[in-house]
Request: fold
Amino acid sequence: MELVNPGIGLIFWMTLAFGTVFFVLSKFAWPSILRALKEREQHIEEALQAADITKEEMKKLKIDNEKLLKEAKDERDAILNDARKIRDKMIDEARIRANEEADRIVESARERIENEKMAAMVEMKNQIAKVSIDIAEMILREKMKSDKAQTDFIERIIDESRLN
Amino acid sequence: MSGLVAFWMFVAGLFFIAPQQLKAEDKHDEGHHKKEFNAGQKIIDHIVDAYEWHILDIGDFHLSVPFPVILYDEGNWHVFMSSKFKHGYASYKGYEIAKEGNLKGKVIRKAEDGTEIRPLDLSITKNVFSIFFASGLIIFLFMSISKAYKRTRKHAPKGIQSVLEPLIMFIRDEIAITSIGRNKYEKFLPYLLTVFFFIFFNNLLGIVPIFPGGANVTGNIAVTGVLALFTFFITAIRANKNYWMHIFNTPGVPWWLKFPVPLMPIIELVGVFTKPFVLMVRLFANITAGHIIILGFISLIFVFGQTSIFAGYGISVISITLAIFIFFLELLVAFIQAYVFTLLSAIYFGMAVEEHHHEEGHH
Reply:
């Protein structure tokens, strides 16, 4: 049957054609194609690995950044806290000092007033005493004008002294 | 799956039997129906090789592309165009195309005593032309994508490159590496790629019904035979010591199977030759069957058309539907058969270079 009876001519040409295709492609096409594929695969593999490493590093960097940020925040908070404390202390101290000063001023004013008062009182007493003595002198001079009055007085004093 | 097989058997049976019956009828009342449509003959004419590429007939006008006939006979070369044969009706320089017998369709020379002499025939036939066309196409395509690979280097593939790249990767990763092994696949890969694309492109061209497609190249036993021989010789040349040892002194087999009657070596040696034979027959049979089925469905229209023109038109709807279905199936088969041939070649290469570990025992 013709269907399963191979022709010599076809075998010859087929061998020649297929051999040529095989030779040409093996020599000029497959090596560069396969090499390019391999290189690209390696390139992709490397790129993926590099990406992984970078990702890991980025993660670390981010964590570091976050830590740094947190530290900075903490520090800022601490500084602010301290500042607030200092401010409060300063205000308190200022207030206390002002109060003390005011007290002292008031105290000293009071003292001065007291002193003035005392001085005035002493002055007044002295004045009063002087006036009293002057009056008494005037009264005595008036009373002791007569000799009798003088004698009576002397007598009474003597009497009084006798009694003692 | 078995349903599908049964369906094929039925279809194949229908068209293998029907033509013979038609033929018998033909012989029976010859002379009455000179131009009766003979489906079997028509199909066989389409799938076998020819000296000219027949495109169409309109009445008595035959449109066909003639190819050069190259003959070597009695020490002389004869080269002339096949158009000299007037589509097989005329003889030229004493050569003619045999009309019947074993050499039917071949160029012969009638000797004086009436016996048919077949000269050495290296004609560029329909299949040879188709092989050249496919070869040119393959070389052009792969040379151009090879250049593209040099240019694009590490970047993504473009255009035709991105169509062929998945196939190249598939053959490398799923066929070569898995069957031969990561260490040894590289020296077989060029052959596997070439054979895959050669078969695949020829299969696809075979499905295209118009010139320059439609030749039954991979459904020709000479073509598949040459491909199988390539696989056979590469296997034999590349085979290592273990492979030959396995054949001539199969380990793990009782000695009385090897001596005095070398039963196992004979079986193994036969196996060496059946492997490429199986490759040859599988591809040939699958592709030829596909062509026969499609042609069968188309012929059905004309077979029915002979009884009544309305029956012909009526059946054409069913015939064309089924033929289109088979065309799609053939697209699949074109890939699968190329894949199977390549895979089996790769497996044979893998067996030839495998390092055996006898301690683990053998199947």
Q: What stands out?
A: Residues 84 and 90 of chain A are 10 Å apart (CA to CA). DSSP finds two helices and no strands in chain A.
